[in-house]
Design brief:
Blueprint: E1 2-4, E2 14-18, E3 25-30, H1 41-49, E4 52-57, H2 79-92, E5 98-103, H3 105-117, E6 123-127, H4 139-151, E7 156-158, H5 169-177, E8 186-187, H6 188-204, E9 212-217, H7 225-234, E10 240-245, H8 258-272
Parallel strand pairs: 3-4, 3-5, 5-6, 6-9, 9-10
Antiparallel strand pairs: 1-2, 2-4, 7-8
């Protein structure tokens, strides 16, 4: 089921659902920066084939959802539509486990959400989470960006460098030609809010205690695998798993080894649900 809320053009939210009969569980996917939920079709197919329903949205300012591209007023604005989707799924299928999966920026959003809302979920899956940047700026530069964000919040600051996105050139070309992918500059406010969310997530990650699978490509140059290691070391979950895949780039679900990744995800889910 595909749907787009039309109640208000400023808040219109595009969502997709891929249900299965008598699901073992439902996986809520939170996509990465600049992309959209339609790019996860192979993962969705693998999850559906294994007996899991899937639901997702285009984040605010992404894909077919409303919102200024490359800008966010407050990082928690990313939380609201994900939580709304989750609560609707809970109402419709109250006895079905719900697991949340976040990739890249979506991994940061999910990790940040878990600081306050982990009770809504039965498990957490992270892929290439943006916990740490490979080119982590010094504190003075982060402070300067925060200052700029106060006086010129929508001013364009940086563009996402997709070098190292995926080893499959066909995937890279599809990404570049996809009209729903946003490649505009990120605003000062977006950059400032994102770095603040990274800092808050790391400082409070010990409060996360849900079952968690953290995955990262070992040769990821877009988000640093060290951030996933730090998150793994910090969370309090008694059931936690870290998988660093040697040689893989950022989009592990689109790498040539994706069937192995899908099998790891399904295996992890099946052991618990």
């Amino acid at each position: 089921m595909n749907s787009l809320s039309e109640s208000n053009t400023d808040t219109a939210q595009f969502e997709q659902r891929w249900p299965v009969e008598s699901p073992k569980g439902i996986v809520v996917i939170v996509h990465g920066l600049g992309e959209h939920c339609g790019r996860y079709a192979p993962l969705v197919a693998a999850l559906n084939a294994a007996g899991y329903g899937v639901a997702s949205i285009d984040l605010p300012g992404h894909g077919q959802s409303a919102g200024r591209r490359g800008h966010i007023d407050d990082f928690v604005d990313f939380h609201a539509p994900v939580l709304a989707l989750t609560l609707d799924l809970r109402r419709q299928q109250p006895d079905t486990p719900i697991v949340i999966l976040g990739h890249s920026l979506g991994g940061l959003i999910v990790s940040h959400m878990m600081l306050d809302h982990q009770e809504l979920y039965d498990g957490i899956l992270l892929s290439g989470a943006s916990i740490q940047s490979p080119q982590q700026p010094p504190e003075w530069q982060i402070a300067l960006t925060a200052l700029i964000a106060k006086v010129a919040p929508t001013m364009g600051m940086i563009k996402l460098d997709i070098k190292g996105l995926c080893r499959d050139e066909a995937v890279v070309q599809q990404y570049l030609q996809d009209p729903l992918v946003n490649r505009n500059k990120l605003s000062a406010k977006f950059v400032s809010e994102t770095f603040a969310a990274m800092k808050e997530t790391v400082s409070q990650a010990k409060n996360i205690d849900k079952p968690i699978l953290i995955m990262h490509g070992g040769d990821d140059v877009i988000t640093d695998p060290a951030g996933s290691q730090q998150l793994f070391d910090t969370v309090s979950s008694s059931d936690k798993t870290l998988k660093i895949y040697p040689g893989l780039y950022h989009e592990i679900f689109n790498e040539p080894e994706s069937p192995e990744i899908f099998a790891d995800v399904v295996g992890w889910l099946d052991q618990r649900f």
